[in-house]
Amino acid sequence: MPGIAEHERQQEVLRLLEGTGRVSVPELAERLGVSVVTVRKDLDALERRRILRRVRGGAVAVRGADEGAFEMRVRYRVPEKQAIARAAAELVNDGDAIVLDCSTTCYHLAREIRDRGGLIVVTNGLRAAEVLSESDATVVMPGGTLRRSSWSLVGDIGEAFSGRGRVARGFFGVRSLSPELGLMELSAEETEAKRMLVSLCHEVYGLFDSSKVGRFALHPFVGSEHVTGLITDADASDELVGRWREVGVPVRRAAVSAEGAT
Questions:
Q1: 126 and 225, same structural domain?
Q2: In which order are the strands placed within the sheet that holds 201-207?
Q3: CB 3.0–4.6 Å: which of 17, 47, 170, 226 could bond 99 by disulfide?
Q4: Which residues form the signal peptide (predicted)?
Q5: What does the alpha-carbon distance between residue 117 and residue 138 come to, in Å, rounded to a whole number?
Q6: Are 90 and 64 members of one domain?
């Protein structure tokens, strides 16, 4: 891979980390066709974004308390997330005003709705905003502080929307969820941002692949009584669907298409 660009080098590093959990500087230099100095700069840049941890001679994947870097999460369960995004896109019509959070599933949803006309999209997700910049959507982003690991804006972002009315519906990824506590996150910063975005929405939809069920999370950002519906993949259990139905929340299970499974 002689002379490949910085972004492509870093994506290759992430791909290798995903497979092995560890990379070494000499092996990367040989594989990428660049100097060890260039490799060290790439690893340092990725560490600053909390995507990996530098160790002597190389780097290892981060296995910390955070929910994980966007670049790593967006690679997981892609067919399931795409199926969920396609199902959610059916709820978005031309001219709608909606909210998308910074989750990887909402990133896929942004890709699905690029052809809608006249959308107004409020999002704190930089990657979703980047996708929608290729459409005619009006993209509204709050102020705040850049959180590099999730490519999101967090902090005191509510002031930007005070007194400006509400939008039709919002779509939110989750770290975990339960009928008792609602939709939850691990990061306190992401939780506060999502609570603000939820407050803008008439309808709230939770989007999650079935691996999220039963995971550990700390902070609810919306209670079950305020959730309009949930969209997950076909592997979600009948028990999950039944528990949420008991609290009045319908769950749609989206099947992975043959194309998406390849």
A1: yes
A2: 138-140, 120-123, 97-100, 167-173, 201-207, 229-233, 251-254
A3: 170
A4: none
A5: 10
A6: no
Is residue 35 located within the same domain as residue 132? no
Within-domain flag for 258: no
* Helix axes of 6-20 and 25-32: crossing angle, nearest 10 degrees: 130
Beta-strand ranges (E) seen in 39-181 are: 52-55, 58-61, 97-100, 120-123, 138-140, 145-147, 152-154, 167-173, 176-178
Residue 112 lies in a domain: yes
Which pLDDT tens digit goes with each residue over 179-223?
Answer: 999 999 988 889 999 999 999 999 999 999 999 999 888 999 999
Q: What are phi and psi of 21, to 5 degrees?
A: 85, -10
Place of tokens 């749609």: 252
Q: Are residues 147 and 200 in the same domain?
A: yes
User: Are the C-beta atoms of 232 and 88 separated by less than 8 Å?
Assistant: no
Tell me the percentage of the chain whose pLDDT exceeds 90.
64
For residues 172 and 191, what is the distance between their CA atoms, to the nearest angstrom? 11
- CA gap 29, 57 in Å, rounded: 12
Residue 260 in any domain: the answer is no
According to DSSP, the β-strands at 182-185 and 219-222 are antiparallel
Predicted TM-score (pTM) of this structure:
0.78
Give how far the C-alpha of residue 139 lies from the chain's centroid of Cα atoms, to the nearest Å: 17
Shared-domain flag, residues 180 and 227: yes
Tell me which residue range forms the domain holding 184. 77-253
Structure tokens at 224: 């079950």
Q: How remote is the C-alpha of 165 from its chain's centroid?
A: 25
Among residues 73, 96, 112, which one ends one of the domains? 73
3-state DSSP call for residue 37? helix
